[in-house]
Amino acid sequence: MGCHPWNGWIYIPWWSLGKIQKPQVERIIMKSLGEIIAVVLAVGFVTLYEFFLAIRKMTNT
Fold first, then answer.
1. Is the pLDDT assigned to residue 23 strictly greater than 50?
2. Mean per-residue pLDDT for 28-41?
3. Burial profile 19-30: b = 16 or more Cβ within 10 angstroms, e = fewer
4. Which of 5, 10, 20, 56 could bond to 35 as cystine, CB 3.0-4.6 Å?
C-alpha cells in the first residue's frame, strides 16, 4: 500500500495545486516520471533477457 508510486500524487487535491509553487509541481512530476521510466526500463530489460534466453535455448537444441 505505502510503496505505490502514485500515493503522494493522488492525495493532493487539484485545487491546492494553484497554491504550490511551480518548481514544487515540476519536482513532483519529474519524480513520478523518473519512477515510471525506471519501471518501464526494468520491465523492458527483463523481457529482453527472457527473450534472449529463449532464443539461446532454441539455438542450442
1. yes
2. 89
3. eeeeeeeeeeee
4. 5
Q: Which three cell numbers stand for residue 1?
A: 500500500
- The answer to whether residue 29 sits within a structural domain is yes
* Domain hosting residue 43, numbered range: 20-60
Residue 3 included in any domain: no
Per-residue confidence band for 25, with pLDDT thresholds at 50, 70 and 90: confident
Report the number of distinct structural domains present in the chain. 1
Give the C-alpha distances (Å, rounded to integers) separating 9 from 23, 37, 39. Answer: 15, 16, 17
